[in-house]
Amino acid sequence: xSHTAHIPSHRKPRRSASKVALRAGVAGGVLSTIAVAGAAGxxxxxxVTETIEMPTLTSGLAGTVxxxxxxxQRVAFNLELNAEENAAATKAAQAAKKARAEAERRAEAKExxxxxxxxxxxxxxxxxSRTAERTTLATASGSSDSGSGTVAGTAxxxxxxxxxxxxxxxxxxxxxxxxxxxMGSTGPNAWDCSGLVQAAYRQIGVDLPRVxxxxxxxxxxxxxxxxxxxxxxxxxxxxxxxxxAIYVGGGEFIGAQNPSSGVVxxxxxxxxxxxxxxxx
Length: 280
Fold this sequence. Notes:
By secondary structure, the protein is an alpha+beta fold. The chain has 2 domains: 73-144; 153-278, endopeptidase fold (from Nostoc punctiforme). The protein has 6 helices and 8 strands. The strands form 2 sheets. A 6-stranded antiparallel beta sheet has the order 3-8-4-5-6-7. A two-stranded parallel sheet has the order 1-2. Strand 6 (252-256) and strand 7 form a beta hairpin. It is rod-shaped.
């Protein structure tokens, strides 16, 4: 027995002769039928020329496309219009906000200016009232007892003794009576001792140093027994003084003393100075 006897063959199985004959007969019959039908038909038959028209969709599609394009343009236009309206509204809101802020700023500035004007007017009225009271008191005291040696009497006497630049210095100092004492202040409503002295002399064109120690050596040293109105009094050593004031005559001086008393006019006996300098 061959060793390949059990291996199946891979070739196509051959068709049987009967199947081939059957298929040939069927094909021949079909061809014969067609031939017979052709022979049986009219000899002069015309070819079929009828054309079947397909429905035309082009015009409808074009209309739909046109409508779609128009709708798209309309949407785009509406979007652009809305964007412009929103931008205009935002710009108007910003302008209104800026205008409101500016109006508020101006109103606040006006209110501050009015408040400052009212305060200044009140201060001027208070100062005028103090000056009137001092004038009335000085006049009354001078009429009743011109030689009594009271503060009012000596103030009146000092005013009459001072002349020229000294009188202007003293008048300025007397106008500040009642003002507050604040360390480091130079007016117009609060002073320290050297700030008041400097301001009184500055308004007649004399530029004094700012601090007491320097003011105590700014002029010619004079004896306390030979004082004249307008002399600068100092407390402490010359060059190291800690306090200064203005001699107004009649044994009186005006100075910004301390926070509790402010600017006052006092007798030399109330607080005897250490020395004096003359600059006029």
